[in-house]
Structure formats: structure tokens, C-alpha cells
């Protein structure tokens, strides 16, 4: 039974580290705003008339 508790403690520790990392990213990382230009081929906008 001690092996099961050790395994569960290990899994909980890994999950807490992952959750803490995600929380820190949300708090401290700000996305940069920038303009995006997407070129659309004229064939998609005006399909050829047959």
C-alpha cells in the first residue's frame, strides 16, 4: 500500500507543477497585439464564370 500512496503523491505533485506553470503563464505573459494581413487569391473571391 505505501507504493500506491507514493505513486498518487507523485502524480499529484506533477499535476500541481503543471497547473502552477499554466497559472504563472496566465498572470505574467501578455500577448503582443499586431496587425495581420492575409492574402486571398482572386479565384476564391471571384470564381470563374462558366
From TrEMBL:
It comes from the Bacteria. The keyword Transmembrane helix applies. The chain crosses the membrane at residues 6-29. Keywords: Membrane, Transmembrane, Transmembrane helix. This is Histidine kinase.
Amino acid at each position: 500500500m505505501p507504493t500506491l500512496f507514493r505513486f498518487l503523491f507523485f502524480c499529484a505533485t506533477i499535476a500541481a507543477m503543471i497547473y502552477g506553470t499554466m497559472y504563472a503563464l496566465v498572470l505574467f505573459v501578455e500577448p503582443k497585439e499586431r496587425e495581420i494581413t492575409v492574402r486571398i487569391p482572386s479565384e476564391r473571391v471571384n470564381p470563374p464564370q462558366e
